[in-house]
Design a protein that fits this description.
Layout lengths: L1 H14 L3 H10 L13 H8 L1 H28 L6 H17 L12 H8 L4 H13 L7 H18 L4 H17 L1 H11 L2
C-alpha cells in the first residue's frame, strides 16, 4: 500500500507545480493571480504575458499529467499492487488534475485543469481525450469563448468514456475530472449567464 500512496501523492505534488505563476513572475515580474481572470492556466497567461509563455505553460501543464502517469504505468507493470490496475491509474490521473486545480503552493489557488487532464487521461482514456480535443478545435467558430469549449471538452471525455464502456474506475475518474473542470469554470459560467440576461 505504501507504493500506492507514494505514487498518488507524488502525482498530486507534480500536478501542483504552478507553471503559469512561476513563468509569468520570472519573465514579467507579475503575479498572474492579480491580472486578467486571475487564473494561472495557459489561457490567462496568454492574455497577460503573451503566446510564447502561454505555450510553454501549456506544454509543462500537459507534462504534469504525462510524467506521473508514465511512472504509474511502469509501477503497475512491474510491481504487485494491492488494488486493480485501472483503479491505481485512475487515482493517479485524478490526483495530478486535483493538484493542478488546487495547488498547495499557492494556497490551493490553481488552474482549471484542462491541459493536465489531457496529459494524464490520454493514457487511460485515449479515444475520449481525442474526441474532446477535436470538439474543442472544431467548435472554435461556434463558441469563441475558451471556457465554454473547455467545459464541453471535459464533459465530452466523460460521456465518450461511458459510451465506450471503459472500465468503471476510468469512467469515474473522467466524471470526476469533468465535474472539477466545471466547478473551476463556474465564475466564467456566471459571467456568461449575467451577460445573456442583460
Amino acid at each position: 500500500m505504501g507504493l500506492l500512496y507514494i505514487t498518488i501523492l507524488s502525482s498530486f505534488l507534480i500536478g501542483s507545480f504552478p507553471t503559469g505563476y512561476i513563468l509569468v513572475k520570472k519573465y514579467c515580474g507579475i503575479d498572474i493571480r492579480t491580472k486578467g481572470s486571475g487564473n494561472i492556466g495557459s489561457t490567462n497567461v496568454k492574455r497577460v504575458a503573451g503566446a510564447k509563455i502561454a505555450y510553454i505553460t501549456q506544454a509543462v501543464d500537459i507534462l504534469k499529467g504525462v510524467i506521473p502517469m508514465l511512472a504509474a504505468m511502469y509501477i503497475a507493470n512491474n510491481f504487485n499492487l494491492p488494488v486493480d490496475r485501472n483503479v491505481f491509474l485512475s487515482l493517479t490521473a485524478a490526483a495530478a488534475v486535483l493538484g493542478h486545480n488546487y495547488t498547495p503552493f499557492l494556497m490551493f489557488h490553481g488552474g482549471k485543469g484542462v491541459n493536465t487532464t489531457l496529459g494524464s487521461f490520454i493514457f487511460i482514456a485515449p479515444i475520449p481525450v481525442i474526441v474532446g480535443i477535436l470538439l474543442h478545435i472544431l467548435l472554435k467558430r461556434v463558441f469563441p469563448i475558451v471556457a465554454v469549449r473547455s467545459i464541453i471538452l471535459g464533459v465530452s471525455i466523460a460521456v465518450t468514456a461511458m459510451i465506450m464502456k471503459l472500465p468503471q474506475p476510468v469512467i469515474n475518474a473522467c466524471i470526476f475530472a469533468a465535474v472539477v473542470m466545471i466547478l473551476r469554470h463556474r465564475k466564467n459560467i456566471q459571467e456568461l449567464l449575467s451577460k445573456n440576461n442583460k
